[in-house]
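INTERNAL AUDIT FORM
Audit reference: QA-55
Scope: verify that the stored structure record matches its stored sequence.
Auditor: D.O.
Record contents follow.
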Amino acid sequence: MAQNLEIFGREFEVTDHMRDYVTKKVAKLDRHLDKIDDIRVDLGFVKAARSAADRYVAQMTVRGKGFILRSEERADDIRTALDAAMEKLSRQVARFKDKRKRGRGDGKSAAEVAPELEPVVEGEVEEFPVIIRRKKFDLIPMAEEEAIEQMKLLGHDNFFIFYNVKSDAINVLYRRRDGTYGLIEPYIR
């Protein structure tokens, strides 16, 4: 089982029975993917959903060394939404494992070449009226092709920040309106 499983409810009470159901479902991930560090499951009820079939939301985020996988599904029942999110996550795991089998060309996965990073310590955060949320995350060295794949796996449609091994710099990958990708490579004068 993953080292850390967190289950949260938004406008939804997570009962012990539901917690057991989620734990049982999530335990299946260990069979397919090793080295899972954290799993976060968000279950929610949206009153203002456009359709009654979209009222319950199940979102799952799986983090491990060298990967982050995420799925979100909506349904008219919380179990149905959770099962659909789990099925979507299973497909992502299969794609991720296949990608890792094919390798980087040098025989090493991105997780193997990533340096061990010290845990991020939350310090005092200055509050500005325009900044609503701050996120901190570890950057994993990867090639541009891997960044595109990771962007697809996470379900990010707009942009993805990564450490480019080829240019030895932090880059921003973004999806253009015509469906192609753009890359922002900052430089210091």
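Auditor finding: record pair retrieved intact. The longest strand covers residues 36-45.
Action required: none
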